[in-house]
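#struct-pred

JT: dropping the chains for the assembly here, can someone run the whole complex?
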Amino acid sequence: MEIVDLSTLPDSETRYTEFLRQICEKHDMDHAAYAGMNPTAGTVAGYVTYGDEWKDHYQSQGLIMIDPTIHMSRRSIAPVDWSRLERSPDFQRVFRDAHDFGLPSQGVTIPVRGPYGDIGLLSATRDCSKEEWRKLYTHVIGDLQSMAVHIHDNVVTSDEFTSALYHPTLSTREAEILQWVAAGKSQQDIGDILSISHRTVEVHLRSSREKLSALTTPQAVGRAIAIGLITPG
Amino acid sequence: MEIVDLSTLPDSETRYTEFLRQICEKHDMDHAAYAGMNPTAGTVAGYVTYGDEWKDHYQSQGLIMIDPTIHMSRRSIAPVDWSRLERSPDFQRVFRDAHDFGLPSQGVTIPVRGPYGDIGLLSATRDCSKEEWRKLYTHVIGDLQSMAVHIHDNVVTSDEFTSALYHPTLSTREAEILQWVAAGKSQQDIGDILSISHRTVEVHLRSSREKLSALTTPQAVGRAIAIGLITPG
DNA sequence: TTTTCTATTGGGGGTTTCCCGTATTTAGGC
DNA sequence: GCCTAAATACGGGAAACCCCCAATAGAAAA
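RK: done, full complex below.
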């Protein structure tokens, strides 16, 4: 998975990290982080209030590949309290590292899903006891969810994000053919249906795979369905 | 903020409508409604606190097809204040009807998206002035979003939602292999990964296709993703 | 206990897909 | 007007997939 550091872009740095800082202040959090994912393209873009040392370590060690907060959030609808991750094997790795860099022990990650398969993750952390965290958690979780929706809504509609997390589009013919494939038709069938050569059908399928960054047609069908380009047949 | 454990209550119908009533009471709302959609399967399941007359009218007139709250929410991440829909052409139709049945004029619809393309909509309404509504809105929107996530999470993991459609089950091996196919692996690759023969992989794929009533593997992958047996790779 | 289901492996052979080319048409940029 | 990129279209040959068959073993259900 490739990481796009949005903070290097000129205008956005101040806007979003400042917003994250405001969340911290308002809800007594030590740190906040936002990550926007495009599972199809396999890209992640984020803003954090963590120090640069941790950011560098996180990237250089490829911790994003095993980060349990990200894996958990990909399947979950509800907010994920980090205490629920403690039994995960990868948890030890990432969180011990984090602790060494002086990062807080208690945290929560809130997933937000958009209509194009995009996922936004807002995480907030605080160094405190479990009891203290529980009290704080129930008090601020509602507002944090609003904030998560708000920041994700802003990020995905901004220019820098759409260019960073490119959302593929298929041509009319490509989508049409992929739709027939999802309906269980063979290339020969589709050629007959559309009155073109099955060779041509294959070409459109190939370009569809390329646009979706898919290695095989089944993978392309899965991704196209996941981001709403076609419907399961 | 307290969360009612829905699983302790016996019957689903009363369970969810009772939960909606509690939301109304807590936040001074007149009515609340939840709709769970599976756009890929084209199914909608809902619970409302509206009267039966309006429910019957809504269904018999097919208002669900033109309901602007549903259309808006399909493309939106953020909550949709019904005042933003007033310029929609279909708005007039649905909301004039609603008004005739004595339904409130102010409302909000909160969309929640799950990992399988499923969408949950929580709506809350109140009959009051615009100023009153604005004040109430900003005060309760955070908690309403939490409630929306909570109820949708419960509904999609409940039996009645999944069993609404015929739901084939795959064996562990079948799902495992289909997941690898969705990730773009060939049969030979999967055989190497799982340390089994590629012939065995093919057998499992065949039975997967049969169980899913799919003619081809791409179709099987699409259906498996649509009903949540695997995730897009 | 018998039966059924799942998981496993293999052969033979037809079908389908996929990668390599080429070619025409169309839309958009300089 | 020219050029480039994308969309559309077609074919040969190699690789992968899929369907028929048979067979073994363990686990679960009847």
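JT: nice. Chain B touches chain A through 45 residues (CB under 8 Å). Confidence is low (pLDDT under 50) at residues 1-10 of chain B.
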